[in-house]
Amino acid sequence: MSSLNLVPNPTVMAIQAGIFFANTIVVKKLFLDPYLGVYSRRIQLTKGNQDLAEKLDADNIKVIDTIQVRVQSAAEEGRKVRDDLLASARTKRDEIVDTASNDARKTIEALRKELTAEVELQRTKIPGLVTDLTRQLLDKLVPA
To answer: Whole-angstrom Cα distance, residue 106 to residue 101?
Structure first.
C-alpha cells in the first residue's frame, strides 16, 4: 500500500526548486521579456500616435481659426473695396448724367431758339403769302 509521506525531503525540494528557477529564467528570457518589450513598444506607439493625433488636431483647429479670421478680414476688405468702387462709379455716373443732361438742355434750348426764329421769320412772310394767294385766287376767279 501506499503511504503518505508528509516529511519533506530536502534533496527533492532543492532539485524541484532548481528546476522551477531554471524554468522561470528560461520562460522569462524566451517568452516574458520579448512579449513585455513588444507590448510596451505597442503601447508606446499607440499612445504616442494618440498624443500626436491630439496635437495635430489641436494644431488643425488653430490653423482653421487663423484661416477663418483671414477669410473674414479678406471678405471685409473686399466689401470695403466694392463699396468704394460702387461709390466712385455712382459719382462718375452722376457726373456723366449731369453733363449729358446739361448738353441735352443746351441742345434743346438752341433748337428751340432756332425754331422760334424760323417761326417768326415764317410769320413775317405770312402777310405777303396771303396777298399773293389772294391775287392768284382773284386772278383765277375774275379773269382779266
So the answer is: 8
